[in-house]
Design a protein that fits this description.
Layout (H helix, E strand, L loop, with lengths): L2 H4 L3 E3 L1 H10 L4 E4 L3 H4 L8 E2 L5 H8 L7 E4 L5 H11 L5 E4 L2 H7 L10 H14 L3 E2 L1 H9 L4 E5 L3 H6 L6 E2 L5 H8 L6 E5 L4 H12 L6 E4 L2 H7 L17 H17 L3 E3 L1 H9 L5 E5 L3 H6 L6 E2 L2 H6 L1 H4 L6 E5 L4 H12 L3 E5 L36 H12 L1 H8 L8
Amino acid sequence: MSTDTLDKIQTATPQDIRHTLLVGSEIAVIDVREEHDFAQGHPLFAAQIPLRRIDDEVRWRIPRLATPIIVYDNGEGLAHKAAVRLEGLGYTDVRELDGGLSAWRDAGYELFEDVNSYSKAFGELVEHRRHTPSLAAEDVQALIDEKADIKILDARRYDEYNTMSIPTGTSVPGAELALRARTIAPDPDTTIIVNCAGRTRSIIGTQSLVNAGVPNKVFALRNGTIGWTLAGQQLETGQTRAAPEIDDAAIAEADVHARDVAYRAGVKRIGWAELEAFKADTGRTLYLYDVRQPREYESGHLPGFRNAQGGQLVQETDHNAPVRGARIVVTDPTGVRAAMTASWLAQLGWDVSILDVDWSAVTLESGPDGAPSPRGPEGRYKRPYEGTDNKAAAMQAYLDWEYGLVAQLERDGTHGFRVI
């Protein structure tokens, strides 16, 4: 690439990014460092695509070539190379953050640590605003020991649950909770306890059941498997317990409640005509997501819809929809998972709609969605809540970080979240 071409890259200031976020226009702020470096500090709505993965990932994650993209690094010289490469791939509005991450810091703006930071910050805000009920690890262990009438529902991905889980827990990934909880715990006197690895998905999962009007007492396991481990309690490994199948009556009941939650969150419901209008709007980025589990998705899905489990779409929105200000449309055959997922995305400030159509009248596609291959371990940030070999100090530091996120959101002032 010639020097003349390199010199043509435009720049943007931290103030430009902040202004775009506040007025709600589309923007993709991309950190082109490795994930470990990204996790040490980044702007709230930044997403991460390492320079070496741009060719593999960017057309999937930023599908509209006219999307305003701002790339940055921390002085390593990666951002300029990334901007040139993006222009080479056909992107027409690419700029480099003038001064990189240091300029953001020098402007007095917040830097957020870890990954999926704004979803985690939102989870803390939900607990802060709604006082989501929770129980300490020691209290849950006591309930297990006394064989109390409880059901422990693990809201993580199945593979995470299979790696390590709370004793007696059942795998019920996030968006499945409102659909299946009444079947798993049909007696309203049964207490439901929702867990994840740390805090976010247990808070969101518990509050989902509260929002959906489940008659049972519902609690989050405070601090998840991290809290369990720090309390000196044993986790199970290799478990395969999964939620039972549900019948049409259970689906219909769950749908009534989920529709109400989505309505209260301001979610729109659209049909085929509106979806086609969205697709024809070349001035907006559009993400289409089927929010079921991968096996269900691969057995038959609507054309053009990618797969992201609903709970993970809320947890990892920066990965699945890095263009802030884009449209998101979600769907699933029952409607329940889509409604609950959409209710959270709306509260996260997204323009989100549910495709509410008769699936039985469509020629469904099968197989995976063609997402880029996983990145592998190179440059990956080691989450303090993954696996079974984490140091206690790292786990406690992670919890302490999460506790501080509400105050950091307030200082940042760009989030636009609202909690129903």
